[in-house]
Amino acid sequence: MATTNNAEDAAAPLADSKGVVPLTTWVLISNFKVAYHLLRRPDGSFNRHLAEFLDRKAPANAMPSDGAASKDIIIDRAIGLWGRLFWASDAYADPRVSLRKQPLLVYFHGGSFVHSSANSSIYDAMCRRIAKMCGVVVFSVNFRRAPEHRCPAAYEDGATCIRWAKSFLGRQCLAQVGCDPSRCFAAGDSSGGNIAHNVAVMMADEGVELSGTVLLMPMFGGQQRTPAERLLDGKYFVSIKDRDWYWRAFLPPGSNRDHPACDPFSPIAPSLVDVPLLPCLAVVGGFDILQDWQLRYVHSMQRAGKPVQLLFLEQATMGFFLLPNTELFYTLVEKLKEFFAEQ
C-alpha cells in the first residue's frame, strides 16, 4: 500500500523480515548481509579484494538483453571513473519512438558508499528494468567508494558525470541511443540517494540545471537515535551498528554524524533555503530503520519551499526495488513514470 502520509500512519505490528518480503528477496539481502559482515573489519578497514571476488558482475551488452542494451563509457581514466549506459532496445529500434528523445537518469547505486558497482549484476538488472519500464536512458555511475575514497569523492564523481552528460561529447554520445540530456535526473537508492541529493546541490550551485531528483530510501542520519532506529534495529536486514560503521568509513576523519553529508539539516549544515533545487521524489519504506531521517529530510525541504513529493510505502523493506516480485515494485515504477512525465 502506498501513501503520501508520514510514518505515524504506518504503525503496523512488527513481523520477521522473512514473513514480510518474498523468499527470493529475503535470500538475496540475507546473503548480502552475511558477506558484508565478513568484509568489514573492526579497525574500519575493508577487504576490497574479497568484496570484488564475491560481487557477481555482469558485462555490458551491445546486443539487447531483457529489452535493453548497454555499454560502458570511461569518463576520467586517471581516477578510474566510468559509467554504464542502458537504453531500451525496442524504443531505440522503432524510428517513431527514437525520434522522441528520452530523458537521462544518472543513477547512483546503493551499498552504503562501500559495496557494489555499476556492473554488479543486481544493479545491472535493476537499471535495465528502469530503462525498459520507465522510458528513460540510464547512466549508472561507477563512483569511487569508501573507505579508500571518503566523502566527498563520490559526490565529485557524480558531478563530473553530469557535467560530461551536458558537454558536447556527452550529448553526442547520448544522442546515439535516443537520449536528450537537457532533461536530466539524478537518482539513487540508499547511499546512492544521499549522493543524488548532494550532487544536485553541487549542480545547483554551479548553475547546471537538472530536471529533478529521485531519492529511493536515501541514507541520511544524525547523532541522536530516532524512534524508528530503536524500534527496527536489526529486524529488517539493517542494524544501528551496521550504519555506524559505514558512516565512520565514509565521512572525513574526525567527523561525527552531524556532518552535512550525513544530516543535511544538522546545526552545522549550510542552509539549503536559497539553493535552487528542482522537484524531488523521495521514497520511504515503513520497515526502513532510517525512515525518520528520510521523513525529516522531506519535511525540512518542504518547509524550505522545495518541491518534494513523498511516496511512503508502509510494507517496504530495504531492497524491495531490487527484484520485480512485489506490488511495491510496480507501484514504484508507476510513480517514477508519472514523476518523469511531469517534469
Q: In words, what does this structure look like?
A:
- Residues 105-321 form the Alpha/beta hydrolase fold-3 domain.
- This is Alpha/beta hydrolase fold-3 domain-containing protein.
- Pfam families: Abhydrolase_3.
- GO terms for molecular function: hydrolase activity.
- The chain is α/β, with parallel strands linked by helices and 343 residues long.
- The chain is built from 13 helices and nine strands.
- The protein has a nine-stranded mixed beta sheet, sandwiched between helices.
- The protein starts with a strand and ends with a helix.
- It is globular.
- Helix content is 39%, strand content 17%.
- It has helices at 17-20, 23-39, 48-54, 89-93, 95-98, 121-134, 153-166, 168-175, 191-206, 227-232, 240-250, 291-303, 327-342; strands at residues 2-3, 68-76, 81-88, 102-108, 137-142, 179-189, 212-216, 280-285, 308-313.
Give the C-alpha Rg. 19 Å
Beta-strand content bin: 15-25%
The helix-strand sequence is EHHHEEHHEHEHHEHEHHEHEH
Main-sheet strand order equals: 1-9-8-7-6-4-5-3-2
For the termini, the CA-CA separation is 25 Å
Organism: Adiantum capillus-veneris (Maidenhair fern)
GO molecular function, one term: hydrolase activity
Pfam families: Abhydrolase_3
Protein name: Alpha/beta hydrolase fold-3 domain-containing protein
